[in-house]
Specification:
- 61% of the residues lie in helices and 3% in strands.
- By secondary structure, the chain is mainly α.
- The chain folds into two domains: 1-26 and 147-340, no CATH class; 31-141.
- A two-stranded parallel sheet has the order 1-2.
- The two termini are 27 Å apart.
Length: 340
């Protein structure tokens, strides 16, 4: 199958399962941005005329919310830059067709430059908010006193990462589109199986058998050709998903001061926990396999939430896709080998 339908057991187990967590809509940034709770008011001092005296936990909660707002502003700025680039492309096309002017193109280009600068500002605000949150979460004993090793369940992340589900759906649709000829050949092969069973003349039986052998080889060769093409596409998808997961995990580790983040594939539901096959895999793992994970050390939910918020599935028109409405993909079974 196509790269095991994206990372074999992980995605087959997880990405084809319904019930992805949808990210909340991204609010538009208010004019002038959102002020930081720690930013000073006019006059150079924080609100109330003194330094904040909230407890460290409360302060971290406030800064966590503030960081979420900064990230939302960053995403909104990214949307604005994309829209400005589209406007510039339309202005350039209109100018090339004689339906626009050079001033329209210059204005559109200036809007792109302004939107790009605005995105840089928002990214800087996110980095500042992450640094403040990291400082707030650092215990009095210093970084070494903080929990520095956390884990996340890759199977659970891929189950609820909406974009991964959508990519699997697109690959399944692609396989369906390129396999139409193959489906016809399989139906023809099934008919020949029925014919060879009902034939009584040995000569006719042999002729049908030879025809089945030729057709089987055609089906086998075509299947390999399709698998190779889809495997190449799946490799590109896997590489992109990896980059997005790595980026989110790196950001979480930086924000919280983690020194090590481990990913492991494991059962997600209670029913899967009882699966003898999965239990056997845990007894002979290819790498470290946690048998106990304290909830405070498991960042699976945070990784999934941020992936869905920062990398939602988009169709070719740039619209967000509701993956909970996608039909399950069931690849066709290969034909039985011809009987000798």
């Amino acid at each position: 199958m196509v790269r095991g339908v994206l990372l074999a057991g992980v995605l087959v187990l997880a990405a084809l399962t319904t019930g992805a967590a949808d990210a909340p809509p991204v609010p538009n940034p208010p004019p002038g941005g959102v002020p930081s709770p720690a930013d000073p008011k006019p006059g150079g001092r924080p609100a109330g005329g003194r330094e904040p005296s909230a407890a460290p936990a409360d302060s971290a909660d406030v800064l966590e919310a503030h960081l979420g707002t900064r990230r939302a502003n960053e995403r909104a700025a990214g949307v604005g830059l994309a829209a400005a680039k589209q406007k510039l492309a339309r202005a350039e096309q209109a100018g090339a067709a004689g339906a626009g002017s050079g001033e329209d193109v210059d204005r559109a280009r200036a809007e792109v430059d302004e939107a790009a600068a605005q995105l840089d500002v928002r990214k800087s605000e996110v980095r500042e908010a992450e640094a403040r949150l990291r400082q707030a979460k650092t215990p009095a004993g210093g970084p070494s006193a903080a929990p520095t090793v956390v884990v996340f369940n890759m199977a659970a992340v891929m189950r609820d990462f909406a974009k991964a589900k959508y990519q699997v759906h697109l690959l399944a649709k692609r396989r369906e589109a390129v396999s139409r000829e193959l489906v016809g050949w399989r139906a023809e092969y099934t008919k020949l199986q029925e014919d060879v069973t009902s034939a009584t003349d040995p000569t006719a039986k042999d002729a049908i058998g030879r025809e089945m052998t030729v057709l089987y080889r055609k089906i086998e060769d075509k299947g390999k050709e399709i698998d190779k093409a889809l495997n190449d596409e799946a490799s590109a998808v896997i590489s992109k998903l990896y980059d997005e997961i790595k980026g989110v995990v790196d950001a979480i580790a930086t924000t919280n001061g983690y020194h090590l983040v481990l990913a492991y594939p494991d059962a997600v539901t209670e029913e899967e926990q009882k699966n003898p096959y999965l239990r056997e895999l845990k007894l002979k793992p290819p790498a470290a396999q946690p048998f106990f994970v304290h909830p405070r050390a498991d960042i699976t939910a945070e990784v999934t939430r941020r992936l869905n918020a920062e990398h939602p599935p988009l169709d070719d028109q740039g619209r967000k896709v509701d993956v909970s409405r996608l039909p399950p993909a069931t690849p066709p079974a290969p034909p039985a080998r011809p009987r000798n």
